[in-house]
Every structure is written in structure tokens, then in C-alpha cells.
Amino acid sequence: METFHNVAYTRFVPIWKCDMTETAENRLKRLKMRAWRRGMKEMDLILGGFADTHLGGLDAGLLDDFELLLNENDQDLFPWFTGLQPMPPRFEPIFKEIRKKFDFQ
């Protein structure tokens, strides 16, 4: 536990930063599997379809952003993608990439 302003917290360390032995190929496979097994079919189609066709062409930063996006709940993601709620700024780069590939308006 670490403290910040006298409040204890556990530092979040993304799983992909912990496993230094994971190959790029295995990471892509893992992300594709997670993108297709969301729990909400609409998000499976959006994220899984994007992962299958475009994940290999992303740079490291966008790949990290995609993995962080996969950590979000479908109930939060769906309104962001449909425009019912604003997308948090931290996801704008990957959202723009997905929107560009699927020609979302």
C-alpha cells in the first residue's frame, strides 16, 4: 500500500506491464479474445470486429489504450459508442481510431 495525501491506495499495475515474457503475438491474441467475449453482443461486434481487422496495425500507445478500453464495463462503453454519453477524454485516441475504421458519424 502506498499513501497519497494520507490516503492509502493500491497502485494499479496493468497486467501487460507485469508479464514481460508475453510476446506481441500472444498479446494480440489475448486482446482479440477479450474483445469478442464482452458479455454484450453489440460491444462484441464493435470491439471484436475492430480487433480482428485492425489491432495488428496499431502502435504501442493505441494498443495500450485499447487494452484499457477493454477494462471498462459494456454498460459504460455502449452509451459512449452510441453518443448517448460523452466519451471520457482518456479514451478519445482509441475511440477516434475505432470510429474511423467503422465510419461512425
Task: Describe the protein's architecture and organization.
The chain is mainly alpha-helical and 105 residues long. The protein has one domain (21-102): Flavinator of succinate dehydrogenase (DNA polymerase, domain 1, Orthogonal Bundle), CATH 1.10.150. It has 6 helices and 2 strands. The protein has helices at residues 15-18, 24-36, 41-54, 60-70, 74-82, 92-102; strands at residues 2-4, 7-9. It has a two-stranded antiparallel ribbon. Strand 1 (2-4) and strand 2 form a beta hairpin. The chain is globular, with a radius of gyration of 15 Å.
Label this structure with key terms.
single chain; mainly alpha; DNA polymerase, domain 1; two-stranded antiparallel ribbon; globular
- As laid out across the biggest beta sheet, the strand order is 1-2
Number of helices: 6
Q: Kindly report the name of the CATH homologous superfamily.
A: Flavinator of succinate dehydrogenase
Tell me how many strands there are.
Answer: 2
Helix content: 55-70%
Structural class: mainly alpha
Query: Element order, helices and strands?
Result: EEHHHHHH
- Look at the structure and give the CATH class: Mainly Alpha
What's the gyration radius in Å? 15 Å
- The CATH architecture can be given as Orthogonal Bundle
- Rounded to the nearest angstrom, the distance between the terminal CA atoms is 44 Å
Principal-axes geometry comes out as globular
* Largest sheet, strands/sense/barrel: 2 strands, antiparallel
Do you know the CATH topology?
A: DNA polymerase, domain 1
The percentage of residues in β strands lies in: 5-15%
Number of domains: 1
